[in-house]
Amino acid sequence: xxxxxxxxxxxxxxxxIDSLDVSAxxxxxxxxxxxxxxxxxxxxxxxxxxxNSLHCIEDGNVLKLISQPYKSxxxxxxxxxxxxxxxxxxxxxxxxxxxxxxxGDFTCEPSFQSSRVSxxxxGDIELTDAGNLTCTxxxxGDIxxxxxxxxxxxxxxxGDIExxxxxxSASSRSTVxxxxxSVP
Length: 184
Description:
By secondary structure, the protein is mainly beta. Helices cover 3% and strands 61% of the residues. It has 1 helix and 18 strands. The protein has one helix at residues 48-52, and strands spanning 3-4, 9-15, 19-25, 28-33, 39-45, 54-59, 62-67, 82-87, 92-102, 105-108, 111-121, 124-129, 132-139, 142-148, 150-156, 160-166, 172-174, 179-180. It has a 10-stranded mixed β-sheet, with no helix packed on it. An 8-stranded mixed β-sheet has the order 6-7-3-9-11-13-15-17. A hairpin with a 2-residue loop joins strand 6 (54-59) and strand 7 (62-67).
C-alpha cells in the first residue's frame, strides 16, 4: 500500500525482490537505481491524475509497477513533470520487463540476466548490462544498452537502437540494421 509523502508524492516500500515489471504510459520519466540493502522503494511524484493511475504490486520476488493511461485536466503545458524513482535493493537482477508508451523515458542502472524492453511512441530506454535482451521499438523512440549477451531487436518506425558490447557468443537477430556504438 502506498503512503502519502509530500503533496503530489506517493511512496511504496518492501523487501527482497529480484525482478522488475514496469509499464509506463504517458508523460512519465522512470529511473531505476541499484541498491545493496535488499530493501526496495518507489517514489512517484507528479500530477494528481498521474498518481491516481499508478499501481505498485509485490508479486513474490517481482515488483510490478503499472502507470495506466490517464487524462490530464490541465492539458499539455505547464505544471510539474511526472517521475518515478525506483531503488531495487540489488545491483544484479534476474528479469526486467519494461514497457514505455508515450513520451516518457526509462533509465535503468542495475544489470539483469534477462531483459525485455519495448518503446511505443517517442520515449527512450537506457540500460546497462541487459543480459539476454529482447527489444522492440515502434515509433520514434530509442533504446540504448551498454552490454548484452544476446540481442533480439525489432524496429518499426523511425526509432533507433544503440548497441554497446555484445557477448562473445552473442548473436544479434534484427529486422533492421543496428548500429553498434560505444554507449556511455
